[in-house]
Amino acid sequence: MLDGAEVAKHATRESCWIVIDSKVYDVTSFLFRHPGGAAILLRQAGSDATAEFAKVHPLDYVQELPEGSCLGPLDPKTATSLNSPKPQPSREVVSTEELPHPSLCVTTGDFEAAAKSALPHRFWTYVSGSANSGLSLKGNLDDWARIRFRPRVLRNVGTVDMGGSILGHKTQFPFYVSAMGTMGNIHPGAEPETVRGIVRKGLHGVISTASTKTPDEIMDSYRREQSQVGDASPSVLFFQLYLPTDREKAVALIKRAKAAGYQGIWLTVDTPLLGKRTADRRLQAIEALSMGLEQEQTPNRPIGGENSLAPAFGGRDVPGQLSPHTTWEDLKWIRDAWQGPIVLKGIQCADDAKLAMEHGCEGILLSNHGGRQLHTAPSALMTLLEIRTYCPEVLDKLEVYVDGGLRDGADVLKAICLGATAVGVGRPYLYALAAYGSRGIERCTDSKSSMLRFGVLRVTLLTTFKYCRKNWRLL
Ligand code: HEM
Ligand SMILES: Cc1cc2nc3c(=O)[nH]c(=O)nc-3n(C[C@H](O)[C@H](O)[C@H](O)COP(=O)(O)O)c2cc1C
User: Fold this and answer.
1) Which of 155, 373, 400, 473 fits a disulfide with 275 by CB distance 3.0 to 4.6 angstroms?
2) Is the Iron keyword given for this protein (predicted)?
């Protein structure tokens, strides 16, 4: 057993000890190999880092520390002698009680404002951020507004069914919750908290490889919530796959997702390496400086090299986690390992949509990763219009999803009118989670809130929906 006072002495870059889950680790040799940067670990030096660690990493991640790092258990009686972590150089956070009542959130923009006050600055930067100067994100938001409805009137639209199906699973909503990593940054309940809202509302959701919790833990929370509602929720979960470079690891991850009960794979194909997240980079430099590190020193391993750290997280490139070598040929072994439906997430032109069809994919998701990857990438809307022009057969043969910048039921309706099967919604749900937990997830979906202004719009626009599907004209 190690004494807290002894641990507290090891608080420098020359000797850095931390406590995780009641065990003491010497992370000195790992400091500059930590993909999240040395500053994060130095801030915790000599202290109990469990809470900070659990925000972004599953607890079993400690096994990834170099061999011999674990020095032994902490004597619990001496825990009070540990250091306190050094505070982050961040802005004040508004407490939950000070946030507007969730009923006051009637547009997705309201959730965004609440999340901005509720989140520590670094996490706000990570979720709201985008690639380079933000043009891809701006294009996503602006493009949906460039289309106008031309409603037909005097049609009976008294009863409207908004539902459809996603990979054969019925949905009452024409949208689902997009895959988003590291939710532990956003809310202490992380992905399980999101899943609670998803199940209660009967939504479908896609769970990220880069989740804070393991695929099994998240599925357990899904099952628990299902049993709470008497297994009555139509919700299903799909798994978003970032393909690790190492094929054995990739196959193991796919099989793990299968065994856990995920109903389809969303294979992300727009991330052979991570986009340039300008705001994150700036913040990491500030943090490094505040810990006396002249410049950020992160491991300099070749991209695509062996990686023991999967699953990884959104802020930085983690070598080996996002295979840059993947090609269309790889779909075969991925399919063999998965034995189920595959959606390619991140298709950005008609030619690739056709290729996906020729390779037997069940679906494609037109997406530029919420503007976080390629600078000046086309919005999903532009890609959808390109497909309608050059290979409309894709819309008949594949399930075609879109995401990026859909902030209102009207945007969702436009996508559906143009032939999309359903729509992924990302940041609005993250913002709702950040401010209000699973209640926020429900509220964001609620017919009184903006996503289901669709519910209000349907009264006037169902026939537009039918009309447009066949006779779409861009106004
Ligand atoms: C056990 C060994 C650890 C491993 C294998 C590990 C691995 C990683 C990886 C792969 C990332 C992703 C890089 C990124 O996208 O930002 C990361 C980020 C991060 N890690 Fe660790 N980590 C470890 C220990 C810790 C500890 C002890 C803490 C707690 C203080 C911590 C806190 C963080 C944070 C806050 C980030 C996010 C960085 C950002 O937002 O830029 N990690 N870590
Ligand atoms: C904070 C954040 C984390 C994300 N993490 C992932 C991820 O782990 N895997 C992935 O394929 N896409 C990820 N995405 C992209 C989303 O799945 C989705 O494509 C995008 O958010 C849709 O755009 P929207 O946020 O404008 O709705 C992430 C997006 C955000 C904002």
Assistant:
1) 373
2) yes
Render pLDDT for 50-61 as a digit per residue (tens, 0 to 9): 998 888 787 888
Tell me, rounded to whole angstroms, the distance of Cα 342 from its chain centroid. Answer: 18
Place of tokens 């964001």: 444
284 and 403: one domain? yes
Q: Going by CA atoms, what residue is nearest to atom 18 of ligand 1?
A: 36
Residues 90 and 96: their CA atoms lie apart, in Å, by 18
User: Does ipTM top 0.95?
Assistant: no
One domain for residues 141 and 290: yes
- CA–centroid distance, 350 to ligand 2, in Å, is 22
Nearest-Å Rg of the Cα atoms of the chain is 23
* pLDDT at site 386: 95
Tokens 């980079």 sit on residue: 281
CATH code: domain of residue 58: 3.10.120.10
**Euclidean distance between CA atoms 454 and 471, whole angstroms:** 20
Q: Which of 57, 86, 127, 308 is the pocket-test mutation for ligand 1 (most atoms within 8 Å of CB)?
A: 57
Instruction: State whether the beta carbon of 62 lies less than 6 angstroms from ligand 1.
Output: yes
- What's the whole-model pTM score? 0.83
Mutating to test ligand 1, I would choose from 61, 183, 313, 322 the residue with most ligand atoms within 8 A of its C-beta, which is 313
Answer yes or no: are the C-beta atoms of 182 and 212 closer than 8 Å: yes
CA 179 / ligand 2 centre spacing (Å): 6
Nearest CA to ligand 1 atom 17: 36
Q: How far is the CA of 362 from the centre of ligand 1 (A)?
A: 35
- In the numeric block, the tokens 């507007």 are attached to 100
Q: Are 263 and 340 in contact (CB under 8 A)?
A: yes
Instruction: Answer whether 54 contacts ligand 1 (Cβ < 6 A).
Output: no
Ligand 1 centre distance from Cα of residue 56 (Å): 7
- 231 belongs to a structural domain: yes
pLDDT block averages, 10 residues each, the chain of length 475: 96 94 95 84 94 83 90 96 80 75 88 92 90 94 88 70 89 93 88 97 94 91 98 97 89 95 97 84 82 63 40 52 87 97 98 98 98 95 94 95 92 88 95 95 70 43 46 43
| pLDDT score at 321 | 67
In a domain, 219, yes or no: yes
* Ligand number nearest to the C-alpha of 425: 2
